């Protein structure tokens, strides 16, 4: 049983100021809640956007603990919690919905009508860059079984977000089709593996500004790795005989990548904006191509996360992880900001 009353937590204390490692009380789980001993918490570009935002997200309050991509072991189930016991390895579903609206009832708490799918670590609740995480309901916990929480944490966002973005377009990816992944970081690497596992796409193309990430993308299943620029656009047009790709996933979302995405997408294709770079997609009668569907998915559903875990157990997808102790969380974010993390930086509070 837990005896500690205080713990370390990496918290955002002031907007547009560096987070701080602080000592805070260990949460006490109430009815239906679960206290999780954190094994791993992923450092995501979304966190950088929150840190640098000129205005706080709606519903955010300070201070709060960062980390929305979390896994660990059940420490203390609250009163009334069944199905979980202390020591069980679990992955934490990130978007915490109300559980009552129509979308939540279907497991799509990422599109909750009341909370907009805000979860821990995004400003409304404390996240997992701490020794313990209070999860508000046991339905947000998915058993990991044989998977190590210290390695599995990125599945809850990088894995789930990429999986959902690919799955919605599988009907376009038959033999002879092409998928383009712009941005070969953590989400892009996952998307490439998922495309190779789930789709019949003949060609998967990775585009990035970093040659080392393109090499990783090739190892993970990309047929081609192209440095971003006009040459990449020309090559994709050559591959697709001038028609463009059936699916273009923009994992970056800045002006230049969105412009590229519009140029290499196909008539009746899908252009899916996953990255939070804040860019604007140029739209007119001819761009994107006619009847090319443009969407910006957010995370994924609880059933989809269960499917992601199944793929990971089967070793069909695997995240490239770099580990950091909690006291080096600030360093991990700086490396992420500088583009020096090859896969996903994961903070291990109990390393």
Q: How would you explain this protein's 3D organization?
A:
By secondary structure, the protein is an alpha/beta fold. The chain folds into 2 domains: 6-157 and 300-348, Medium-chain alcohol dehydrogenases, catalytic domain (Quinone Oxidoreductase, Chain A, domain 1, Alpha-Beta Complex); 161-295, 3-Layer(aba) Sandwich (Rossmann fold). The protein is built from 10 helices and 16 strands. The protein has helices spanning 45-52, 102-105, 149-152, 158-167, 186-198, 211-219, 230-239, 255-264, 302-313, 329-337; strands spanning 6-12, 20-25, 34-43, 64-65, 70-77, 89-92, 132-135, 141-143, 178-182, 203-208, 224-227, 245-250, 265-273, 293-295, 321-325, 344-348. Strands 3, 5, 6, 7, 8, 15 and 16 form a 7-stranded mixed β-sheet that branches. It has a 6-stranded parallel β-sheet with strand order 11-10-9-12-13-14, with helices on both faces. A 3-stranded antiparallel β-sheet has the order 2-1-4, with no helix packed on it. Helix 6 links the parallel strand 10 (203-208) and strand 11. The two termini are 20 Å apart.
Keywords for this entry:
seven-stranded mixed β-sheet; Rossmann fold; Quinone Oxidoreductase, Chain A, domain 1; 25% strand; six-stranded parallel β-sheet; alpha/beta
Mean pLDDT: 94
How many separate helices? 10
CATH architecture of the largest domain: Alpha-Beta Complex
Oligomer: single chain
Low-confidence stretches: none
Categorize the overall geometry: globular
């Amino acid at each position: 049983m837990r005896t500690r009353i205080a713990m370390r937590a990496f918290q955002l204390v002031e907007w547009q100021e560096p987070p701080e490692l602080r000592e805070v009380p260990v949460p006490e789980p109430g009815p239906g809640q679960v206290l999780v001993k954190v094994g791993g918490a992923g450092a995501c570009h979304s966190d950088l956007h929150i840190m640098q935002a000129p205005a706080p997200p709606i519903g955010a309050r300070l201070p709060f603990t960062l980390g929305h991509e979390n896994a660990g072991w059940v420490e203390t189930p609250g009163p009334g919690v069944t199905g979980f016991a202390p020591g069980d390895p679990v992955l934490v579903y990130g978007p915490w919905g109300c559980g009552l609206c129509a979308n939540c009832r279907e497991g799509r708490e990422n599109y909750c009508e009341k909370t907009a799918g805000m979860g821990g670590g995004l400003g409304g609740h404390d996240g997992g860059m701490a020794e313990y995480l209070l999860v508000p309901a046991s339905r947000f916990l998915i058993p990991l079984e044989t998977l190590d929480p210290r390695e599995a944490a990125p599945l809850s966002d990088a894995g789930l977000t990429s999986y959902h973005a690919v799955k919605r377009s599988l009907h376009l990816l038959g033999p002879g089709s092409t998928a383009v992944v712009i941005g070969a970081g953590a989400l892009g690497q996952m998307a490439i593996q998922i495309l190779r596992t789930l789709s019949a796409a003949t060609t998967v193309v990775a585009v990035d500004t970093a040659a080392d990430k393109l090499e990783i993308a090739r190892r993970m299943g990309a047929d081609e790795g192209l440095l971003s620029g006009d040459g990449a656009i020309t090559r994709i047009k050559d591959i697709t005989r001038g028609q463009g790709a059936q699916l273009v996933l923009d994992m970056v979302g800045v002006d230049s990548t969105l412009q590229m995405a519009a140029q290499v997408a196909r008539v009746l294709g899908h252009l899916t904006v996953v990255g939070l770079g804040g860019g604007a997609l140029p739209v007119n009668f001819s761009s994107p191509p006619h009847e090319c569907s443009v969407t910006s998915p957010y995370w994924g559903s609880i059933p989809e996360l269960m499917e992601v875990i199944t793929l990971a157990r089967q070793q069909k997808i695997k995240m490239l992880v770099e580990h950091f102790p909690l006291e080096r969380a600030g360093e991990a974010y700086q490396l992420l900001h500088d583009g020096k993390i090859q896969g996903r930086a994961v903070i291990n509070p109990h390393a």
